[in-house]
Amino acid sequence: MSGHSKWATIKRKKGATDAKRGQLFTKLIKEITVAARMGGDDPNGNPRLRTAIAGARSQSMPNDNIERAIKKGTGELEGVNYEEIMYEGYGPAGVALIIESLTDNKNRTVSEIRNILSKKGGNLGEAGSVSWGFKKKGILSFDKKTISEEKLMETALEAGAEDIKDADDTFDVETDPQHFEKVKEALAKAGLNPTHAEIAMIPENTIKLNLEEATKMLALMEALEDHDDIQKVYANFDIPADVMEKIS
Fold first, then answer.
1. Which residues contact 115 (CB under 8 A, 6 or more apart)?
2. Can you point out the beta strands (E) in the chain?
3. What is the pLDDT of residues 65-87, one digit of tens each?
């Protein structure tokens, strides 16, 4: 399993503390605000906003919070102007990293990201240094315990999905980003609702980590995702099952 999916699985197993939940809300609000600013306040005509709202509701964010974030994005309410910046770098064992951020102060953010990487065995790279090794894909994850693989595969492929992958406790439907909403809607009509859905950067190849490397890499992932300006972190690592057992 690639780094982003593996990290998502570990986070689910850990569960979210109240502090982490508040931090997650902050990040979700930023994404809703930027999505509304860029594409308008109508989710039906703004796929990015529609996905952001769905993500917020999946985390039980109150509707008032969502509506305020949209109004800040459209200018109906005063808000902060966030800038989207993607950073590239390396973690322990040469793992490639793509770090997506939304910030109101890019000088502060790049300085703090560089500091985190330095302390956790990584370093910041130049633009384009690792992104060539990733591809942008739509990912829809479904809980294996509550879904029929046969029905999922039949419906997803018929709707235009590219692949269905077995990812530990989920089946992950992979789509071209342009077909993401179409596939998601077709699955929803068939009564198949994902536990998680996003447009993500998927690594072309992965680096297998031993126990020491995996421990360091996961500590770095946690430190990066704890930063308020960082929305998502993608990495090209893989942790073998026997190593994961020792970590868990």
1. none
2. 83-90, 96-103, 123-124, 134-143, 163-167, 170-175, 196-203, 207-208, 230-235, 237-238
3. 999 999 999 999 998 889 999 99
Contact call for residues 246 and 211 (beta carbons, < 8 A): yes
The structural domain count of the chain equals 1
Question: According to the model, what pLDDT value does residue 91 have?
Answer: 97
Dmax (CA) of the chain:
53
Shortest CA distance to 154 belongs to which of 201, 180, 191? Answer: 191
Q: Give the sign of the dihedral formed by CA 237, CA 126, CA 38, CA 156.
A: negative
Q: From CA 118, how far away is CA 102, in angstroms rounded?
A: 21
**Is the per-residue pLDDT at 1 higher than 50?**
no
pTM for the structure as a whole: 0.85
Distance between CA 184 and CA 195 in Å, rounded?
Answer: 12
Full domain range(s) for residue 223: 83-132+206-247
215 in a domain, yes or no?
yes
